[in-house]
Fold each of these.
Amino acid sequence: MRIQCPYCGERSVNEFSYLGDAGIERPDPHASGAAARFFEAVYLRDNPAGPHNELWYHTYGCRSWLCVTRDTVTHEILRVQTGGAH
């Protein structure tokens, strides 16, 4: 799989670190029931088939955060945005 970095051009996925679903919001640690919400956010994830927004970090390149829209069935990269924007 290859990702088109907006700054470095097309690169091997081996240069990037996958961070997970770009749509997950970190729970408020001070809210009531925070432990249960963190458990859900970390361990109870959907496994969608089709286009999915993911966070990737260009670890061995420009060190940018990217929001990559990837088809989880075909692994086709549909879109790449900078800054983790989704």
Amino acid sequence: MARCEVCGNDYGMTFEVHAQGEVHVFDCFSCAIHRMAPICEHCRVQIIGQGVEADGHWYCGAHCARAEGKVGIVDRV
């Protein structure tokens, strides 16, 4: 069994996420999201969906990116 790096649960069905040369172990998706999801630099929400990256900064959407002065970013419908 392996231990979740967020909640510490020792669980037989953990899973690994390989990202940026590191291996992370979680027991559920909510723990993985808690640890791995970027945070919007404007409103501070965790970005679960696509998000917007502009000049090395992450935003939950075009509205927050524009609020931080980023130009030329539009939401796609």
Amino acid sequence: MSPTTPRIQYDCSKCPGYCCSYPRIEVKDADVRRLAKHYALSFEQAERKFTRWYKSDEGPERILRHQKDETYGSICRFFDTTARRCTIYAARPAVCRQYPNGAKCGYYEFIKFERKHQGDPDFVPLA
């Protein structure tokens, strides 16, 4: 680790996948190409199978499809809802690779605090 690289202070393996439950996980062309390669599909096949278009005030946005989830209601289609892990970690989109854009994750801090104060190492705060 270089002197300018901040030490990561969160552990995704202890989180139930909060960031994967965001309703809009943006997917760029490079992300679709990565998914297509990962699944040996064409760009068009991967785009159709794994993404959908969302119309926002800022314009159309390609996002990952979701699946039902008992914890958050809806979660990324690539999330294993039993193991609570990403099934395409090596091929995940850039936005997932960059999250949380720093050495700390606010949700990880929150869940760590709640688990300590609830006396339950598996507690998941909802709404």
Amino acid sequence: MSLSLLLTLTLRAFISPGGSDTPVSVGGLHPSDGPDADVRIQVEPERVRFFIMLNLAFVDEIVDVAREADDDLHPVEAPWVREALLDYFKEENQVEINDQLVEPVDAGFEMLEPDLTLLPLFPRMGKKALVKLQLILDYPAVADPRRVRMVWGAYPPDLAVGSEGFMPTVTIRAQLFSGGIVSPVEFIEAEPEFTLHATGETATDRMLAVPEAVSPERLQWPIISSTLVLAGTIVLIRRRFDGRALVTMLVTFSIAFLLRRYAHVELPFEMAGASLPDASEAEEIFLPLHANMYRAFDYTAESDIYDALERSVDGDLLDELYEQVYRGLIQQEQGGAVSRVQEVRPLEVEVKAVGRIPDDGRLGFTVETRWQIDGRVTHWGHSHDRTNEYHARYAVVQTSEGWRIGGSQILASQTVSATPEGSGG
């Protein structure tokens, strides 16, 4: 599935009738009960693409197109609104690619069917909050975008949180997809501009450094010489150290000495006698491994997430930890939307044992730890923040690739804080 199709399906899922993303409101008011925009920006080698989803309340604040019904849009009227929106964004929004101002190209328009069962959550705007339009704008690039300057120009009053005495303008909380990584971007009226500098950095480049496992050089075992020494010793013992046996042994040992540099066999990594860390060093190894496990989810493609996870997690545990972390980031009440990690905050780390890992046999150490995850789900043009706390036991093992998390057991989890649904983002 292409990223363009994935983004389109994701946007449509936010308002799909009868879907699982039915918002739950606190106090009977949804934070999108006002002008609402959901913006996704996709940077590709040949273009910068904006997926812009607006509700009718937002549209009415920026363009003036006559309609038969104030709270609805008839399909016959849709082309006029499409043309008006295209003209508006050409005038008010700006995109520069590699220092060249680029005109947008109309790449798609769709009017999406509203879910009228949600009307009770939108007492201010009513159906105008639920009728949604999706506009796709392409900004062609003549060369791979290295510097992309974006200016957003539309800031209607935020009717969902404003009052007679105070009426702020909306904040556009966009998501930027570039280099396989998704990042949050905010546009506000006081700071309407954002510049992307494409450095080629990947999520893997953002990984924290992990101390290397200290081990001697891999041991080389001289198989021919060892066999000759063993054979000579057996002959000597069997012949009870007689003269011929002594001569045979001396000849055998001499040949073994001459052949000691040939036909070596490398001993397994576990037999190389690697040095183990003390408790303090073990903590310094574990913390970046644990943080990097979450940083892998900055990627958008599952294959890239797995590749990044391999730098922190032993291969046999990859599937289990992928599912464990992914489930922890899913916001079920947001229809399965994935929370983006803002911060991994360790609270306690206790190294329990250093040596061979029980039921594993490899060298390493075990850790019991508590930590908090700050995450953010962005949809419907607003965001929900949540902090979850976890308590778990981990095993960290030495491998030929370095230190890796080789075992995991979640002992407890709880939600510490969450943005109420009715409070806005």
